[in-house]
Amino acid sequence: MAENAIEFCEITKRFGEVTASDRVSFSLKKGEILALLGENGSGKTTLMNMLSGIYFPDSGQIKVNGEVVSIQSPKEAFRLGIGMIHQHFKLIPVFSAAENIILGERGGKYDLKAAEQKLSELAERYGFRLNPKQKVYELSVSEKQTVEIMKVLYRGADILILDEPTAVLTPQETERLFAILRKMREDGKSILIITHKLTEVLALSDRVAVLRKGQYIGAVETAKADVTLLTEMMVGEKVKLGIDRAAPLNGPRRLRLENVTCVNVEGVPVLSNLSLTLQGGEILGIAGIAGNGQRELLEAIAGLVPYSGEICYGEDDGSEKDLKGMTPAAIEALGVRLAFVPEDRLGMGLVGSMDLTDNVMLRSYRSGASFVTDRKKPKEQAEQIVEELSVATPGTATPIARLSGGNVQKVLVGREILGSPKVVMAAYPVRGLDIHSSYMIYQLLNEQKKKGSAVICVGEDLDVLLELCDRILVLQGGKSAGILDARTASKEELGRRMMGGEENKA
Question: Distance of CA 227 to CAs 111, 153, 235, 308, 500, Å?
């Protein structure tokens, strides 16, 4: 049996009355890739934060290379050879890749030339594609991730923890990353990966460890596992996965965009000459690497950013309303809802100190309802969100800030799409959600479509977009790289267009 790189021994961590980790024991072997799975709120992040020195266990032990350790800080984790690659990069844009990597080295003395040489050797060894002299702001998302991985390798990490590493990568970039991780494994590195994408877990890992409600359920060799088994281990019961895509209803035209262009504060176009139509009773997916105009498109429709061109809303009788110059509140009153799931869920969209009912009331307040007296309907809506989306909470009176990130997200999305709006715009609605919760959201969007709503869904998982949507618009560099039939398109074709591999065309 291989030696263990990491051992969790009866680890317990509580936050007030909530037990995030309950006597958890499992190990990461040397020279293996272990996937850590669990529903939102199962305790994955808490464990990783203890391993990287952000939290300290209330009881139990952590062993690194067979020795009991006390990890009091991220610096101490680094000293022990543990490197954490976070989902959201911690880089300085105006510095070069090499400068970001050597920043914070012990001693404070930097030899940039020597560092660049060492990085070139690392790149050659593992197959990284990176120019160490290039500024971070010039890099693609996958190149920025490469910088983060090379940073921990440069500092001598033998144990790597990756949190949702493929969330914003194209299929081609994901394959490239997996090839690099396999080379690291061959080199004796130990890799622990947290992801919600079960197909990737099955493609990459050697073993899968599963958490449920703060407890360790067990581990299984990947070769003996499938999506159904892993989901059942996570949830504790049989779960139906799959999206029953209904045929589009061909309802009234709800949106018409003609040559819509948005520019940023520097005057650079971030969305260029985009034209499309959207019918009631269909789901239009938006695919693209993050930062290619998805956000600006939705915000322009919602009246949140200025634009040139024309955006018109279609009424039931076929007449149109030009949305230019209308306030966001007036556009919302037409039945156009934007459910944008930001990286900072509590900083944008919800108020952490307020409970579920009060957060639902914020929407009612925007609609003109009495903030003081009208609590009955928001409370009913809050209870509906909890029930339909299985929000893990003691009750609707619980402050939002006390919920896990995934459960916060369910509230954010549920608040916007429950209520049968005419147009639903859901941006990254399942970002960070486990597979079970994700399929609940997909089903909700499907139900809106069946009710005749026009749905726009910006997503990161191309497999899901192909299964859920009727058509898919690919954005590349703020321009349309084609609108494809989701029933006949392939993931590889979408990936090529996202990377600019096809001629841009509407």
Answer: 48, 32, 12, 46, 32
